[in-house]
Amino acid sequence: MLDDVTVLEVGDRLSTSFAGKMLRDAGATVVRVEVHARPELDAADRDFAAFLHGGKHSVLARSVQDISSDVPGLVCRADAVVCDGNDPEILAAVRALREQQPDLIVVSISDYGLNGASPSVPATEFTLQAECGLTAVHPTGDRPPVYAGIDLGEYTAGLNAAIGIVGGLLATEAGAPAVDADVSQFESMVGVLQIPWVFSQHGHHSAYTWPQAAVPGIEKAKDGWACVVAVTPQQWIDFKALVNVPELEDPRFAELVDRQAMTAEITPLIRSFTEQYTVAELVEMGARARVPIVPVATSTTVPELPPYTTRGTFVPHPDGFLQPRPAFRLEDDTWRIGELAEPGRDNDVDWGSRPERVVRADADPARPLAGVRVLDFGSFQAGPLVTRNLSSYGADVIKVESVNRPDLMRFGGPLPTAPDLWERGASFTATNWGKRSVTADLKDPEGHEIVERLVAVSDLVLENFSPRVMEKAGFDVDGIRRLQPDAIVMRLPAWGLTGPWKDLPGFTYSADATSGLSDMTGYPDGEPLLTSTAYDPIAADMSTFVALAALRRKISTGRGAAVEVSLCDVAPQTTAQAVISSSRSGERIERRGNNAPGISPQGMYLASDGAWVAVSIATDENWRALADVTGGAPWVTATSRVDLTGRLADRDSIDADLCAFVGGRQSGELVAHLHSVGVPAAIMQSGMQAHQHPAVVARGRSVEVVHLVNGSKQHLASPVRLSSQPDAALAIPRPSPIFGEHNIEVLLELGYTNEEVQRLYKEGKIGNSPFGLPIGDRSPVHVQ
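The structure assignment produced for this chain is given below.
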């Protein structure tokens, strides 16, 4: 899709490398600009480097300032650069390349963004997870909270940087002279949560629960661990019928939020059933009962799971390890594993001239997708987040529901007594802004005709049902192409369009368990832990990147695409490092609490005011600075602890010393002092006040949106900040739609008469409330 694009990759952080990998997987020519000799790598690190950088080119420059003089032909060919934004020297040198290439797109990745309240605050993946709310979701009882066992923030920031590259291309081709995209890793990580900042603002709504273990969730089996999902009312009913434990019929357990509050009471009841069976038996029983049950995979067993083995998710690398293939699958896919280039291999390559870029007449750089129509059959988080993101680039997104099959996310959170409760779901309003809403029943002939007319005038059609739903309705790829031959068809099934699990329901928790993340999160002697709903937003970021690339190609060539982005394929991208290592060594990467290789100390420590403080001593310099903060305490200045080797050997003892030190101090004062001397630290947050975080507010990412039912609320705009979109309000063009809000407007556009529309209302073919529920004190939108 991006085979006409050349991108320079400058920097060493994982997110920068992952962004380059995504672009290369989509067909771009990606060139690593290296300015120093690579360190010697052990086998595991070299394998991971081969995964991240396979297929990229490499040029060697004397310094970042010498890129233009050392490889001038490459700079003249380049369309964009993705770089580490935390290094001012790199950023200045990269922007200077515009002297040779005036319209060069520059995408930077930094901890908090390049401007605002926190650009120079020291941070690590560990402290950012605590500050954004990810650490808080893990239930650890009376033990300190733990972070996710992988660098989720780096991967999400990398995905957003890849989005920034394609968004920048679209903006440039719409007339923007040069585009910067400023990606904040902190904002990217906030977006992985299930919208806690909107929960905190909505009335008539349940509280955001944290810790946030699903109940049921990770459960003990006879021979291991299984992940059971029962988040919808029907799933809970089906699960109770499956286990036949009378005590679970207690009405106090009916709502997920209540079950989460009573975990200690419910878990023994659930496990009285699950512990009688093996994991394989539970998975089989769940499939028969339509209850999502999957194994909790380890880094050694992930590639052995049925949806992966049958779909070729993991492929053998010529160097002798397994790696995941790209998470997105295109028709006529030509992706192949590429070799890891030696530094400077491509210094003498003749890069040729850059393809001519045609600027679209009358296009708007702030809304480069204006005039593009997107048809949204998404539900829950993953699908709707993609189309929401496309709306921020100007696309006209039409969300399709039916009276008897609404998006059940509408009912996630509002209290049963709330008026118009289906309009008050925080998770729904935050994942569906920017859209218009129509109702049409695929099972009804007239509803089917409405959808046919919509498909015929749409550029992109997206759905994330199980495969049989759209195929049965006649809206699979072939069915859509009969109506719109050049459409982009995006399908986001949980377990893929093929394989033995393709018709099984799957959720973000299922992907958490099968990817190995759950098994790598928690204490070594504790249970595996779920990281909330992280994989739905990550899959949405992946799909947004692919959708933008496909739309860019369609705008320039008219060519459509059939794209599959399965949740089960997205998750292994983030656990690849562990799975790659285990595929060679045969050794499982175990849970390690808050420890991380090459860092000591690192942990969560309770301050005197009851707040948890995350501290990560990533360098010897950080350790010396910590000594100053403690006033030269003997436990910090001991000779045996001055270097990393000594600190790693004495990790547990240092952890106890630091715990005692933090316990005698106020969290805010301590973190401010640590920041002043360059030590990464953060106060653990739940995410509920993310919209008020100084770094977010100062960067204009907190935007007021006025909703017809919920009133004024602050929402968070995209973590990808394009310089071609100066007005923050453009990022959220309209509030989430009320049910069927745009029925008349859209149907008239499709050629229906007003009389026909009113008849459809009267016959219940379209409507303004799901299941015909009574509307509160407001006028139905179809009243004439």
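Interim note for the steering committee: The mean pLDDT is 94. Residues 535-557 form the longest helix (23 residues).
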